[in-house]
Every structure is written in C-alpha cells, then in structure tokens.
Design a protein that fits this description.
By secondary structure, this protein is an alpha/beta fold. The protein has 18 helices and eight strands. The protein has a domain of 40 residues. Strand 7, helix 17 and strand 8 form a beta-alpha-beta unit. The radius of gyration is 20 Å and the shape is globular. The two termini are 38 Å apart. Bound molecules: zinc ion. The site of zinc ion (ZN) has 6 residues, from loops.
Length: 331
C-alpha cells in the first residue's frame, strides 16, 4: 500500500465514524471509496483476466452458463449463474465484468441497488450507463430491501443516516411492539410498503428497461435488529424478521409488482440449487466452495460484488488459485 492509500485509510476510518449519522458523510465515504479505488484499484484488463481464468476452470469442469432467472426455473446439475449485486461502490468495476461477460458470451445478471437513499439516487445516471451497456446474454434486475427503502424514502426524506439513528433508538422498538400488538396496523404498514415497492419496480423498468427479477439486499433494518431480536419477545421478533428483504419478498408481492422471481428464494433442503459468494474478499474460500459444490453436481449461483476486485483486500487471486487446483472431475 502506498502513502496516499494509507492517508485515505485514516481519512476513511474517521469519516466512517460519522457515516452512520448523516447522508452527507455517507456520500463522502462513497467518494473516498472511489478515490481509494483510483489509487489501489485494478485496471479493467485485470478483472477481465481473472474472470477469464474462472470461466476456463468452470468450462473445464463441465459447467454450462445460465442467467439467474433461468437457473432458478431449471437448476440442472453443473449449471452456473453469475449474480452481481451492484452498489454505488461496484459501478466502476461492474463495467469491466460486463465487458468480460459480453466478450465471452457468458450470461450475467446485474442487480442494481439504485433506489434506496439519496446517495444511490445521486448516482442514478451512472447506474443508467451500466444498464445501457447490457445486451443479451446480460440481464438486469433490482437489488432491493423494500421495507428499508420505503421507510428511508417516505419517513426520512431519503436520509439514510437519520433512518439508521432511528433504527437504533427506543422509538423503533416501540414501533415494532405496536405493530406486533395490532395486526391491522401491521397489515396497513405492509400494504404501504407494497404500494411503494410496486411504484419503485415500475420506475426501475422505466429507467433501465425490462426487469423480471429482484435480489434481496441485507438492509439496515436487518443489521440493526438482528442483535436485538432475542430481547424483543417472540411476537415483536417475528414481526421484525418478516420485514427483512428475503422473507418480505413473497411470490404474491413479487407478482403484484409484475416480477417473476426473487433470486434468493430457490433454495431449500430438497433443491439442487446453491448460492455461494466472494464474502468480503475471501477468494480462496470461494474457490474451495465452488469446487465442493461442483463435486456434488449442484446448480450454483455465484454472487459476486465487483468492488471486491477493485480497491478492496482479497486473500488470493482467482488466476493463481485456479492454476494450482484442478477441475473437480479430472482428478
Ligand atoms: Zn446489497
């Protein structure tokens, strides 16, 4: 790491301390990340090369490539789908991944996290440029946490910092307890979230073209509530959990918004479908997990965050790790 990168790290950690409090600080973090990415980030041809190494390994292992929606409807053995969750920090590297998929004619599904708080909206043009670069076999979807987005936008004026402060205040716990005690209030709230979800999916289609799938985002509500669920009591905990993106995105609500599917919900004990991920730069672990899943002839959805290859730390590189390993069926 060079000197300017060290300085950026110190500056970033200071801004992070403020980051939970205001949207201005969050916007500053996003800009620092881009600056750090410019200092430490990889050239697009590095990303293209790393993805090419992975694709060669997968082809050698007998994989066939599908979009996330196609994989969900037919999780055939050794089918592989690439899921990209694209946050603001992922936009730049997202272009390199898109280029690599297009040149190799391998499907990719990009889920855009464009409609959350003011920060994401301020990058909607950049999200649009990424979506405009799609041609088949690239698919675009929405990356979303509907309850978080509804609350941030309708009650906190798009200010994620103010929302985070509320989530961690006694007021939020009182709100949950009230909904747990009053079913009609809980239903009315869910109806309001659904209305805003339907509206936001329509806006996504108008802006980026046809979409048929959503990918659940972890969300602030989940992050704030998970450590507190046990202390909340069973009813409030159940209400809280039902507001997380993945359980909230039921088939009925997806249908109401004109969407076919949520790409998180194909799993289950009987399913041949599995998802694995780069998990914050754990490339070595990801390579092992992919090999294990392919040995078991699973259909694999590989969740990648483009930023992982553009300015963040990785514990190994795909090209080196895969050169040292062998295709699982050629042992
Ligand atoms: Zn996300």
């Amino acid at each position: 790491m060079n000197q300017s990168a060290g300085f950026l790290d110190v500056l970033k950690s200071r801004v992070y301390a403020l980051g939970r409090r205001s949207s201005l600080a969050r916007a500053t973090i996003a800009r620092l990340r881009r600056l750090r990415s410019a200092v430490l980030g990889q050239r697009p041809d590095f990303i293209v090369g790393e993805l090419a190494a992975l694709l060669a390994f997968l082809r050698d292992s007998g994989c066939v490539f599908r979009s996330c929606t196609a994989l969900g409807s037919n999780p055939e053995p050794l089918a592989m789908a690439f899921r990209y969750d694209v946050h603001v920090r992922d936009i730049s590297a997202g272009h390199a991944f898109l280029q690599a998929h297009r040149s190799q004619q391998v499907p990719a599904s990009l889920f855009l996290f464009w409609d959350y708080s003011g920060l994401e909206h301020s990058y909607s043009e950049q999200f649009g440029a990424l979506a405009a670069a799609r041609i088949p076999p690239i698919e675009i979807g929405l990356h979303d946490s509907p309850v978080d987005a509804h609350l941030i936008q309708s009650r906190f004026g798009y200010d994620r910092g103010a929302y985070w402060a509320w989530l961690n205040s006694p007021d939020a716990m009182t709100w949950l307890a009230t909904m747990a005690a009053d079913n009609s209030q809980f239903e009315a709230f869910n109806d309001a979230v659904l209305q805003s979800f339907v509206f936001r999916v329509r806006a996504t289609k108008e802006r980026f073209g046809v979409i048929s799938a959503v990918a659940a985002h972890g969300g602030d509500l989940r992050q704030a509530l998970l450590p507190k669920l046990q202390a909340l009591g069973p009813e409030a905990a159940q209400v809280g959990r039902s507001l997380f993106a993945e359980p909230w995105l039921t088939p009925e609500r997806l249908a109401a918004a004109g969407l076919a599917t949520c790409v998180d919900n194909y799993g289950g004990a009987a399913s041949n479908w599995c998802q694995t991920s780069d998990r914050g730069g754990d490339i070595a672990g990801m390579v092992q997990r992919i090999q294990n899943l392919l040995r078991r002839k699973k259909a694999v959805q590989l969740l990648l965050h483009p930023f992982t290859w553009d300015g963040t730390k990785r514990n190994g590189e795909l090209s080196q790790l895969l050169r040292a390993s062998r295709a699982p069926f050629k042992e």
